[in-house]
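Q: Protein A?
A:
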Amino acid sequence: MLLTARACAASLALLVPLAVAAPAAAESFAVDPAIPSYAPGNAKPVAGTAYLTSDGAIRIGGAVHAKFVVERANALYAKTHPGAKLVDVSAGAETAIPNLTYNRILVGSMGRPIKLLEAAGFKSAFGAEPIEIRVAHAANDTSQHLATSLAVYVHRDNPITQLTTTQVAQILTIGNAAGDFSRWGQLGLKGDWTKRLIHPLGTPQYSGFGTWMLANRLDGKPYSTRYEEYSSTDELLKRLESEPGGITVAAIGRETDRIKQVAVAETPEGPFIKGTPTEIQANKYPYSRHLYFYARREADGKIDPVAADYLKLLLSKEGQDIFAAQANGYIPLNAADAAIERAKLDQ
């Protein structure tokens, strides 16, 4: 039986806000012309394989927000592989790894990296973690409930305009080698702001956003004792609107008349940026994330050749064209990044 979102007992509340900001003007993204065209393989699934339906269709699962991509990738795969049938059974990112574990899907999409507990369970069963392929950059628009990159926000009354990623970590966590920040004056603010307490807000540390931040931007350090958690992006940003001393990292594209995005940089020298699609595609924005697809990897390190073929389609020019076709959708990879991901499939 295919595992459902309810069976996995998890929530997408942090990924799909209850209410979203007004949609941005429709934006499409260019595909790097250096990405090679798709060369279909000739692998076929073994009859009786668990990821096949009773009529022989290949199941593709995972995150519901990847539906636009999966439907079109399935159609293209079927067109380039006469006789192949595919079906989208996506029921939520939390179903991807369990269904891969039981071989109920060929590949599974997620808007976040695999969690430690998920990876440990899979590895205990097969001796190796599933293969992780970044197929696109996360979106920078929340109106379609897609996985997004992140941004740093403060109250509009706050005069701060830019922060380094190190400073953000010193605000959100404790035990930093260069010290921790508790007052806005430590960041150069003057007047009434000199002694004002910094109030860090955020999502739970083991949410999709939280685990990404801990692993990629916070070096796994514990959150500040003043860190206040909220279970959804909407609740979080609503709280920030009423807290002039607050700061948070949340889904990009959520500025309002009460809160503003702060420009960020890796170093004090800059450049300080806010994550335009061009900056994200060029891997310049520190809080950019990805859309991932996972496939089973057996103890010998190999993956199903049909899965490799499907993933190569997503990483081809035609596959990246699918991402580019979704207005305000996932941002295509550049040629160098696509090549890195394709190389994983040939190991």
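Q: Protein B?
A:
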Amino acid sequence: MISRRSLLQQAGFASAALAMSELPGFAFPGEWLHSQEEVVPFTDVPENFTTINAQTKRVSGLDLRQLNAFLTPENNFFVVAHYGVPTVDAATWKLDVRGRVANPRSYTLDELKKRTRAQRECSFECGGNRAPAILNRMIGNARWTGTPLAPIIQEAKPTADALEVVLWGADEGEEQIRTEKFRQNFARSMTLNDLAKSDAILAWEMNGQPLTAEHGFPVRVVVPGWYGVQNVKWLNSLELSADRFMGRFQARDYVTIMGRQNGDKTEWVETSVTKIRTKSMIATVTRRPGGALSVFGVALTDGTPLKSVDVQIDEGPWVAAKIDTPPNPYAWSWFRAEVPAPSAGAHTVASKAT
């Protein structure tokens, strides 16, 4: 059996524990898994593991053990909605471009759809995907259709002091700051420099279909190579600002703390979650007819070309995996490695990506 545990997300590691036994075959695309192979089950996946959120009753992720398609179906793509799912009327919806701009304006959905059309095939990962109870389920790969974001900002003519664009969503909730309570909308920001270097779009389709309410209908942001939180759903405003935005989901939550050594002192530095860090995740392990194990999984980057994925059983040697690299660098890569069969009993399998 194999269980999936995150070891060092920043280093691109993933691990799993396994115990040798026989289970019915598990179907993947033919070039990756032969029908006669048998699944070696994970030991650290609870029997009651589910991708359904107990409170919302909505899908909260993808069970990688069931991965059998390059594009994640909408109903298996993880959903995070900190303030719930708002009801938005597409007929009256508009997108305001405002703030530190010389040419503020609003767009209807029809006006956006008349602009240059663009597609982005990319993977999302939640910034909290490494938690033990999550079991890497908050990940997905989809094809998004919309229009490029950067030209919309350029046409608004940002003023010389404009530093960043704040992406405001229609979803809102109450936040307590010190002793006061405030009604706030979900928002994230990115610098104009980061925006110019990105392939961000305003999307209204997912896998060829209009966005569902859960995935941000009628329009959401898609920033390839960035963690899921940056891809603001139910977008209704783009605000150009001369100041750094410091909302809850920018400066208090979705913050990474990392230690760095300065002489004999460790300095702990907090930074906002932005671009995806190279990471590999094991999906399944199967036994080949001759007894060897086939380890299958996915790897993500921020668009930086994936160099390698290696797999290890217990403390044995690292074995290079075969990588199926897609034409789009922002989409996930699939990998598979064949390793010698270990002895009967429980074992740990790990992967690392660079």
